[in-house]
Amino acid sequence: MSLDKKLIEWQDIGGIEVATTRQHRFGTDAVLLESFALSRPAKKICDIGSGCGIIPFLIAKRKKNCEIVALEIQEDAVELINEAVLKNGIDNVRAVCGDARDISLLKQNVGNTDFDLVICNPPYYKENSGAKCPDAQRSLAREENTFNIYDAALSAKTLLKHGGRFCVCFKPERLCDLIDAMRKNTIEPKRLRMIHTRAEQKPWLVLVEGKKGANPFLEVLPPLVVNSESGQNEMNIIYSCVGSE
Known about the structure:
Blueprint: E1 9-12, E2 17-20, H1 28-37, E3 44-48, H2 54-62, E4 67-72, H3 75-88, E5 93-97, H4 103-110, E6 115-120, H5 136-142, H6 149-159, E7 160-170, H7 175-183, E8 187-196, E9 205-212, E10 219-220, E11 224-225, H8 229-243
Parallel strand pairs: 3-4, 3-6, 4-5, 6-7, 8-10, 8-11
Antiparallel strand pairs: 1-2, 7-9, 8-9
Helix pairs in contact: 1-2, 6-7
């Protein structure tokens, strides 16, 4: 599928313009995941299922001395990433079009076993678990039609060096699946944080960091309650990295 450039909407994230379309946008979960993942240093990073490339561009905005691969299966999304790379003159983001389940692709076109950090904002919903998204492209990002959390963990295992980190955001009700997928691929969950809108409400997102080949020990961080004084202060800090030089 070739991208119709007339459909591109440019969004400024504080000095970098990201190309988006109706099918390929980004939300708060991606911004929270990038902040969570970048709380620790990394030099070589791969974002699996990169969409419009928001996570690689947020990283590139803050970290000039790292190499970032944006792996995405949809050709038009890869074109969006390349358009933004060209427009912004970014030299440390490289887009790769392909299926993250293709181990030969990971080894030949992406590189394997030497990444410090793999990030993934995967489809949240099991196939046939609810109302279908009518847009086929958006459905790929939302539902596990062709790519699931076990696929993501296997890809991360292939890409990461020993001791490398795998950072994921997911639905809290599927946390057991996420931990099971990590452990079946020798990635041990090491940090976990729940995200709530309000303190009295159940969490709507969980952020998890795993480490390849690590020993069991899970640090459960204090929750982020967005609609609280401390939560608003933290969100302001996180979004200041998005919206300012």
